[in-house]
Amino acid sequence: MMRQLPSLNGLRAFEAAGRHGSFTAAARELNVTQTAVSRLVRLLEDRLGFPLFRRHANALELTAQGQALLSGLTDAFDSITRLTESVTAMRSGPVLTVGVGPTLAITWLIPRLANFYRSYPDVEVRMATGGATRPVRDDWTCTIRRDTDALPGYNAERLFPSTVVPVCTPKLASTLRSPDDLRNATLIVVSDMPNEWPHWFEAAGLGFPLHPAGEVSFESNVMAMQAALDGVGVAIAQIPYVSDALAAGRLVAPFPIVAHTVGSWLLEYRAIRKEDPALLAFRAWLHQEADLARQVEIVLGRANTNGSARRSAGHPPRD
Question: How far is CA 83 from CA 87, 125, 126, 128, in A?
Fold first, then answer.
């Protein structure tokens, strides 16, 4: 049976005008004139046989029929948008969904994806994040996270150790001669990772609490790393978070003392996915990148004369 539909342009014009309460705002969204929107809505009203708006001098007021139609249309257009996006995202090649914390994704994984695509152009990588209460989803191919052991039912492969080092801008580093100078600095702290500075203080042979001159707290590592780049103070950072900034000279490690915390960065996946073509490619590439990442720690560790720098303490924090 053939559908007897009103004009799609008329429906789009009405839906936009109804959401905005204005023909002018709808015209801007649809990139047409206000007159065109008004005319399309009027033609739709003629087609339906009842008014959709009460037109006032400076506003539009939906009629009861208009309110009912607007709600259904907005849902329908949203559904069409989602369907179009999902179809557009479909590819013929293998797809890999990796769950990864936002800081590691932004500072380490995403900047390296261009290299992955050069080696595996047919594999599509999709990023996803979980959270403290749900660190992995069943529809993910794999996940990268810090912990001491694999999640129940998952295989785990060690990528690199969990290590932290202080970082700051070169300008700020020029004022720091020894770790004890941190007492006169502003320290950048991530609020839900309170143990990382104490771990490093112990590795450096400093007492705790240190009582620095200032302290700035952030809710996430992303914000803390940006604050360090902006010269706000000295941050304590997981080495993968800052390896690129260190290599580029945007950040420096004023004291090359590396403190090891509990756990490691792990690649985890269910055994049933072990032969997944996309995962096979990603695993091979990821381990190569992890080998390179470990070299940063080695370079820093060569200058580490404090024997207590390699230690295990505390609980592995979240990304």
Answer: 6, 20, 18, 20
